[in-house]
Amino acid sequence: MIVGIPKEIKNHEYRIGMTPAGVRELVGAGHTVVVESNGGDAIGFDNAAYIAAGAEIAATAEEVFARAEMIIKVKEPQPNECRMLREEQLLFTYLHLAPDPEQAKLLQASGATAIAYETVTSARGGLPLLAPMSEVAGRMSVQAGAYHLEKAQGGNGTLLGGVPGVEPGKVLILGGGVVGTNAARMAAGMGAQVTILDRSIERLQQLDDLFQGRVVGVYSTQDAVERYALEADVVVGAVLIPGASAPKLINRHHVSAMKKGSVLVDVAIDQGGCFETSHATTHQDPTFVVDDVVHYCVANMPGGVARTSTMALTNATLPYALRLAGQGLNALRSDAHFANGLNVHAGHITNEAVAEALGVAFLPAEKVLNSFMQSA
């Protein structure tokens, strides 16, 4: 198979869909890999490194899309990239379609098959291709919150860890999954007072064992959200419903009642955000203020540490990329968890949560895959 790796074009996005090490694995398995010129240059993966790994270098994205049978990216395709996709071409990347009807329509119109990292599941119930970036985003969320608490950045001037004689800042984390756990690890390490809200008693028990009293776990109710949000200096939104729009846990009333200069970090912004007042921002212009509360809603947070993020992401995606390149859609037919990543095929939305969020018709992935086998 011919695999194409275009350069990412989203604002301040320096990650790339495949490292030279990954290219070497694909080429060793008999595939052709075409990488856009300077695609990884910003993070130390120059053209020479890709050539040494066996890749061919394309001068433009148009050449990559035209030659490739499968496109591997990091972020969702931008409109001009969607228009370069074609029927029977595979796209393997993050999509986050639920809050993005324009992208969904363009992908449907392309006729391509789009497989989303964020909805591939594992036998243990996890999201193996989302987890690496969730780990990064969780850790970055507290860094971002601490920085924007500084008075010069619009915050209330609180040092999260405090100093002897001065109480530390308070961090509220909504959701005890991968993002929330990593955010708690960073916040507790800084010396902040940390509370996690979650609706799974089992998960709260696991967090209690993990943090040994350094983090307080509280069952999430509307009362608990309101109580702890109004006391917090930093609130990290870390709630995820795979494929679906994130629930709005902090509403405009809560924001207006929060401490002046407190900071909301919405890690769920890729799925529409879990704060009612959120809208997506960029690394170039990361924050805005509503009712004297700073909002950090960067939609590609891990892109800020692009080298670490690229290596962490591609470590997870490479085995799946090898299977797709070797087997095509048969790789999904033989693995129900991989098949959960199928979001768009031949003009149809094939993920139920995505279809529900977009308000469109849903074609089950298994029907697509069974039809594919019958016609093969």
Description:
With 376 residues, the protein is α/β, with parallel strands linked by helices. It folds into two domains: 2-119 and 310-375, Rossmann fold (3-Layer(aba) Sandwich), CATH 3.40.50; 131-299, Rossmann fold, CATH 3.40.50.720. It is 38% helix and 16% strand. It has helices at 20-28, 47-52, 61-67, 79-82, 101-110, 131-148, 178-190, 201-211, 222-231, 252-257, 306-327, 330-333, 336-339, 352-358, 365-375, and strands spanning 2-5, 32-36, 56-58, 70-72, 90-93, 113-116, 170-174, 193-198, 215-219, 234-237, 263-266, 287-290, 293-296, 342-345, 348-349. The strands form two sheets. Strands 3-2-1-4-5-6-14-15 form an eight-stranded mixed beta sheet, sandwiched between helices. The protein has a seven-stranded mixed beta sheet with strand order 9-8-7-10-11-13-12, sandwiched between helices. Strand 8 (193-198), helix 8 and strand 9 (215-219) form a beta-alpha-beta unit. The longest helix is centred in the last third of the chain and has 22 residues, at 306-327.
State the secondary-structure class. alpha/beta
Number of helices: 15
CATH top level class name of the largest domain: Alpha Beta
Largest sheet strand order: 3-2-1-4-5-6-14-15
> Could you tell me the number of beta strands?
15
Order of helices and strands: EHEHEHEHEHEHEHEHEHEHEEEHHHEEHH
Mind telling me the C-alpha Rg? Answer: 21 Å
> Share of helix among residues?
25-40%
Distance between the termini: 17 Å
Q: At the third CATH level, what is the topology name of the largest domain?
A: Rossmann fold
The average pLDDT score comes to 95
Report on the biggest sheet.
Answer: 8 strands, mixed
CATH superfamily of the largest domain: NAD(P)-binding Rossmann-like Domain
What share of the residues does DSSP label as strand, in percent? 15-25%
The CATH architecture of the largest domain: 3-Layer(aba) Sandwich
Number of domain units: 2
Uncertain runs are none
| Overall spatial form | globular
